Amino acid sequence: MIENAVYNAIGLVAVQYYQPTPKLVSVARTQYYFDCQHGVAIAWVHVPAMLSYVGGCCGGGRLVMSLASDAVVRHWQDGQGGR
């Protein structure tokens, strides 16, 4: 298990894309869709390599994925930070 990661019921990890936009990303021949809800783009993944994905505009070159915190996941789910 990854420390500070949020897991769903089937053991996938919540990863956040740096921009609040829907995004399709291919890593290791697998495609992941970052669903944008309430201004947060999250994908549930099983590949820790997703965290080393490099992208961005104007030539990219920066890490654009991060572990989604529990608060971010709750906000993505209900738009109110889980309140």
Blueprint (SSEs and pairs):
Layout lengths: L12 E5 L5 E5 L2 E8 L2 E6 L8 E2 L6 E2 L1 E3 L2 H9 L5
The main pleated sheet reads as:
5 strands, antiparallel
Radius of gyration: 12 Å
User: Looking across the biggest beta sheet, what order are the strands in?
Assistant: 2-3-4-1-7
Helical content band? 10-25%
**In total, how many domains does the architecture comprise?**
1
Query: What is the element string, with H for helices and E for strands?
Result: EEEEEEEH
Q: Which percent range describes the beta-strand content? A: 35-45%
Summarize this structure briefly.
The chain is mainly beta. Helices cover 11% and strands 37% of the residues.
Can you tell me about this structure?
By secondary structure, this protein is mainly β. The protein has one domain. The chain has 1 helix and 7 strands; from the N terminus they run βββββββα. It has one helix spanning 70-78; strands spanning 13-17, 23-27, 30-37, 40-45, 54-55, 62-63, 65-67. It has a 5-stranded antiparallel sheet with strand order 2-3-4-1-7. The chain has a two-stranded antiparallel sheet with strand order 5-6.
Properties at a glance:
single chain, mainly beta, five-stranded antiparallel sheet, two-stranded antiparallel sheet, 11% helix, globular
